[in-house]
Amino acid sequence: MNDLRFDRDFECTYGAIADVAPGIRRIVARNPGKFTFTGTGTYIIGKGQVAVIDAGPDIPEHIDALLAALDGEEITHQLITHTHIDHSPAAAAVKERTGAPTYGFGPHGAGRFDPGKAVEAGGDMDFAPDNQVRDGDILEAGGFTFECVHTPGHTSNHICYALSEAKALFTGDHVMGWSTTVVSPPDGDMAAYMDSLELLLARDDAIYYPTHAGPIADPHPYVRALIKHRQEREIQIIDCLGRGVRRIADMVGDMYADLDPALIPAARRSVFAHIIAMAERGEIACDGDLEAGAEFRKAG
């Protein structure tokens, strides 16, 4: 039995700055939803000269509140974890009004696709960082030190930022305490996601700050539970195939109990991501191209 437990005990006041920890503040955008929980949390690191992590969606109310809260302070860095429309679009307005440069792995799909390719709905295709960062890069910002940790899976350009002085990792959507992470092909990659979870287990970060909801104070057991959860999904897929359930649409109905109908498309994409990874390992096969609508079978 997996011991994965979600923490949805999180409250916020939209437009208000909250002190999260010494040197760390947060303001939450009013964009609640099935995939954003209460909304996008924009983090502010430092005082006077500050770094902003995930400026958020292009909502004028949120941008105005963020900049009003930082009146008299200088944004020296805008750090972007990845380029979904709830994370990066506000960075353009913040830069226009303050001159604050952006940092990120690259444009949407940069880890897998050519620049400008419309990879998926929900991608911020307008974002291109002023400064590209790579795994292991070190950024100095306002007296703080950030290590860039490339964690592809949710998106190919996903970066976590480790705040060395606090042993804190800002995990974007890679690890969230309120929910599992959506992994949706073609840019989402389940094999890469699992590797990126294993990567976190090799680190000694003491606390995680996801972009949605509250912190994860004991991260390693939680990450291990996420890995086990994904492994159990693959066991379910093999079980479905063994019982003659060969299409993803039928597997989702079999695997997910009492699923909100609004989440069925995401669940289908997640199952497909698992099947792609399992096919790459030689465990699953299909006739013809590996597509979401195919009929699958156990290989061999």
Number of separate helices: 6
The figure for the number of domains is: 2
Oligomer: single chain
% residues in beta strands: 15-25%
Which architecture name of the largest domain does CATH use?
4-Layer Sandwich
Structural class: alpha/beta
- Shape descriptor: elongated
Gyration radius over CA: 19 Å
What gap, in angstroms, lies between the N and C termini?
A: 29 Å
Q: Please trace the helix and strand order, writing H or E for each element.
A: EEEEHEHEEEEEEHEHHHEE
Helix content: 25-40%
Beta strands, count:
14
* Strands side by side in the biggest sheet: 1-2-3-4-5-6-7
CATH superfamily of the largest domain: Ribonuclease Z/Hydroxyacylglutathione hydrolase-like
CATH topology tier name of the largest domain: Metallo-beta-lactamase, Chain A
Short description:
The chain has 300 residues and is of the alpha/beta class. It is 27% helix and 20% strand.
Structure, described:
The chain is α/β, with parallel strands linked by helices. The protein has two domains: 18-226, Ribonuclease Z/Hydroxyacylglutathione hydrolase-like (Metallo-beta-lactamase, Chain A); 230-298, Arc Repressor Mutant, subunit A. It has six helices and 14 strands. The strands form three sheets. A seven-stranded mixed β-sheet has the order 1-2-3-4-5-6-7, with helices on one face. A hairpin with an 8-residue loop joins β9 and β10 (159-163). It is elongated.
